[in-house]
Amino acid sequence: MPEWLVEDGIGERRALLVEGGEALAAKVLWPGEMRAGDVVSARLVAKRAGKARGSARTENGREILVDQLPWGVTEGAALTVLITRAAIAERGRLKRAQGRVVDGVPKNEAAHRPTPDARLVRHFPAGLWEEAWHAASSGSLDFPGGEVLCSVTPAMTVIDVDGDGPPRDLALAAIPTIARALTLFDLGGNIGIDFPSIEAKADRRAVDEALAAALADFPHERTAMNGFGFVQIVARLEGPSLLHRFAASRTGMCARGALRVAERAEGTGPILELRVHPALRAKLKAEWLDELARRTGREVRIETDPGLALEAPSAQVLAQ
Asked: H-helix or E-strand containing 320?
């Protein structure tokens, strides 16, 4: 049976849904973020006249777009808010968290977390997180005869099918990988799939049917393929996908990834040397490096190398 595993990293919590030695889904949570299912206290700061919607602010200054405001509530009123979507950073802007006003703590929802039945492990099985992480970093997954390319835009996440062969065959071959990308990258919201243009209606119908079967366990709504090969999917969006994380904070993702590489370095000796691209040095917070030293029991040295890619740090244990 599939099982959620959680690895408490430095600066982030990682989760993998694993079955048969394969990663089916991946999530990243950063400390201090409001997550879907959290119940928080806030005060109403603005309300649209005649509407049950407005904005609220938590004690630590985070803003939430709120819905289901009680009749007669006024600005400044204390609210209990159930978060329905975490804040999502995009290029040049921040989509504020969304929530709804509730009366107390709703049963079954307040305890909700993305991985409620997860098992905490010290380290994931070798290679599984690395595969998911690098695939999300590049936005690419290969399949026989082609490649699925994923990118985020302010309007939607776009999945492009690229490869050789007849359009119908290429589209059908890509579907299992598309289905995997949706869960592996933790995608939600508006998702557009750009298949090759397929002229025959019967062939488009065959692709629609294959896509429906592949996504039978993925809650969503979907349009039929149009004459240009485009399909739109709408799925519940609870927070930033791995693609959003890389698009909005690549250096932040890579800094946390470098710490993971360092934490897993093997060898005997009192010194842990971590080599990173110079852009990552400023992202490595002092408290993170202190935690790395505590976890490894070694003195931590940071070296910078402009020849390294952001995504390719290296770490070694030194005798002196």
From this structure: none
Pairwise CA distance, residues 293 & 301, whole Å? 10
Higher pLDDT residue, 291 or 93? 291
Going from the C-alpha of 259 to that of each of 8, 86, 275, 290, the distances in angstroms are 12, 25, 10, 11
Residues 144-155 have a mean pLDDT of 93
* 174 within some domain: yes
Contacts of 294 (CB under 8 A, 6+ apart): none
pLDDT at position 230 over 70: yes
Q: Is residue 21 part of a domain?
A: yes
Instruction: Tell me how many domains the chain contains.
Output: 4
172 and 197 together in one domain: yes
Question: Virtual CA dihedral for 198, 203, 207, 213, nearest 10 degrees?
Answer: 170
Domain that holds residue 148: 139-242
pTM comes to 0.87
Mark whether 230 and 149 lie in a shared domain.
Answer: yes
